[in-house]
Fold:
Amino acid sequence: MFIHWFPGHMTKAYRLLEENLRLVDSVIYVLDARAPISCINEEFDKLIKNKPVLYVINKSDLISKFDLTQCLNLFKKLNKTCVSTNSLSQDGAKIVKEALNSLHLNLIEKYTKKDAIRTPRSVVIGVPNCGKSSLINNLIKRKKLETANRPGVTRSIQWIKIDKNIELMDSPGLLFPDFKNQDKAFKLAAIGSIKDERFDFLELAEKLFTKILEIDPNIITSRYADIHKFNSSSTLENIAFSRGLLLSGGKPDIERAAKTFVTDFRKGFLGKVCLDLSLMQEDDVDKGE
Ligand SMILES: Nc1nc2c(ncn2[C@@H]2O[C@H](COP(=O)(O)OP(=O)(O)O)[C@@H](O)[C@H]2O)c(=O)[nH]1
Ligand SMILES: [Mg+2]
Structure:
């Protein structure tokens, strides 16, 4: 499965992020809990240079407590400041605000000493659809930014004071997915961070099915209980039979089967699944440190 991308779009996103980062003291790096490691683009990370970073594992409600702990432990092991949240919950921003204030302690001291009282500034960054706008809305407690379950909705820029020690860039910084790593890109496609036109949807569905089977076969059977009754060598055909998705003449409708399966995953109907779990458990994750 190959996921298409445009170098021109990447250059534009890179420049934009570079500009945004120049204006801030710290970075709130949002990761989607269903594929947190895949949400990291090391190429773009170089732009952050030595500014303090707060990693936020968002959509924590979509993965199990066990997986979330694995993830938080990994960041801890790597000496990175990390919290988890559900940006749609009422107090979803509280933990982020508190962690950000601790991250800013040195800055606040520095700014106060200089007598030039200046509020530390921060920007929320992340790949499309990881929940940047939702987190910002939660931080500013106003439903202001447009959110949508598709990539690339947010545009305009302004500064918003969210408390006496944090000023936030209203417009999130867009991280371009790491397409050089097609395994990361596949996972981002699965969680809806890459437009569906950029890849073969049937291939995505098949690959996602294999990946989920590898994680835990019970996830499949708890949703498609009778799937083993059908003995086509094609996964999508079996899903079509299991769901009664048939074309005239009784042939399995694999297009609809693919859509059903991927939507079931994206909407959480398959339960709590973290696609990056194997990456977090590998011993060589921290070799780069
Ligand atoms: N379950 C869940 N959904 C979330 C969370 N945060 C955002 N979303 C949903 O994810 C989708 C993308 O969110 P959005 O804030 O527009 O992402 P952005 O593209 O990064 O700005 C929307 O459908 C949100 O409602 C979360 O913490 N949990
Ligand atoms: Mg947005």
Notes: The pocket of magnesium ion (ligand 2) is lined by residues 132-133, 147, 153-154, 172 (CB under 6 Å). Residues 219 and 270 are 6 Å apart (CA to CA).
